[in-house]
Structure formats: C-alpha cells, structure tokens
Amino acid sequence: MKHRGIIFDMDGTLWDSAENVAKSWNKAIAEYGYKREPVTREDMYSVMGKTMDVLAAIIFPDCACRDELIKVCYREENDYLKTHGGQLYPQVEKTLQELSKTYDLYIVSNCQSGYIEAFFEYHGLGKYFKDIECYGNNDLEKSENIKLIVERNHIDEAVYVGDIQGDYDSSKKARVKFIHAAYGFGTIDEEVASIQQFADLPETVAKFFE
Fold first, then answer.
1. Alpha carbon of 187 to those of 67, 105, 198, 205, 210: distances in Å?
2. Is 131 helix (H, G, I), strand (E, B) or coil?
3. Cα separation values, 105 from 67, 80, 110, 187, Å
4. How far is CA 14 from CA 1, 119, 151, 210, in A?
5. What pTM did the predictor assign?
6. Which of 81, 125, 176, 208 is the most buried (most CB within 10 A)?
7. How are the residues of the chain apportioned to helix, strand and coil, as percentages rounded to the nearest 5?
8. Tell me: the pLDDT tens digits for 122-168?
9. How far is CA 42 from the centre of its chain?
C-alpha cells in the first residue's frame, strides 16, 4: 500500500494568527525601546508566507538593530500564541481528525522555530500530525523542507495544501501535488484544485489519490 501524506501550510490554511501576532510584536517592540508606528493585523497579512529574513526587512526596513529586534519579536510571539492562540478556520479539528484516519498529516511553514509548537500547545492539535518542519529550524526554503518531510517519512504520494502563490511554487519545485486553500490570503496564477472551506478537503484529497 502506498504511503500517502498531506502536508499543510499554516497561516491562511489552518489558522489566522495575524491579530495576536501583531499584539505580541507591539509588546516586544515597546519593551525593546524601538520607535515605530504600531504593527497592525494588515501589516502581518502583507508578509504572511514570507521567510523570516524577508519579513524582518519589510517590517523594520531602517532598523540598524533589525536582527536582534526580530529575535525578540519572535520570542514574544511564540510565548503569546502559546497562551492566546489564533483564529482556527471553521471545522479544522473535525476535518483533521477525519483525514488522519486515512492519511498521515504534516506541516511545513516558513515560520520561526517554536511557532508550530505554540499552535499545537494552545489548540491541542499536535496529536494529528506525524512530523513538522520550518524555515526557522534550518534556513531552508519551503520547497526544500517539503522534500525533507517527504524523504524522511518515506511518503510515496504527497499533496501540499496552501493559500498563496509561493506555496504553489514551492510544491512544484518539490514535485508534489497542490490544493489551494482559496479562503486564505492569496490567489494562484494557474488553474489548480481548490477548496472554499477547510471541511471540503477530504473530498478533494480523495480525488487526488484515486
């Protein structure tokens, strides 16, 4: 029997953490003593899916202490999300529970180390996932981390579920199938399979693995 896996993006796919991330960053920035306009939820939306170094350059373009400050923000963010969580999309847990009966589930994100773990800690969803990987662990781009998950878990057929063009591009580079979470933060330039809500995923995935 083939080993089939579903690999998930996080932001715009499993949850929307933008509001609480912005709150945590403003707290960190104030405590650090850096002066800038408050970070907003919209600021976070504009950088969702980008790697940590690119994100830092956008949010703190003129900050000489950017590298240090971004580390402070990420530490505060992880701590804040552990106790406040984010906004799960409707029926995420119910759908993950259903999917996990047939497929092995994974997460690959461009986030910092500890972000996925904070998601698990607050929402209690870690039990549904076999493995995770992120940019913050190894500085690898998303396509390479998708390949890493596929290789170390001996997955024969994989599909990546994400919401932005970068997710699709990464899946193509990693040579895995792709499903667009169309309710998320972005659009895809090509015609691809898509879901309008998370609960649609089991039916769509089943067609990929017929």
1. 31, 24, 16, 19, 26
2. strand
3. 33, 25, 17, 24
4. 28, 10, 23, 24
5. 0.95
6. 81
7. 50, 15, 35
8. 999 999 999 999 999 999 999 999 999 999 999 999 999 999 999 99
9. 17
- Residue owning tokens 């998930």: 8
CA distance 113 to 115: 6
Distance CA 2, CA 157 (A): 7
- Give the list of residues 6+ apart from residue 58 with CB closer than 8 angstroms, or none: 46, 47, 50
3-state DSSP assignment of residue 179: strand
Residue 23 identity: K
- Collapsing DSSP to helix, strand or coil, 92 comes out as helix
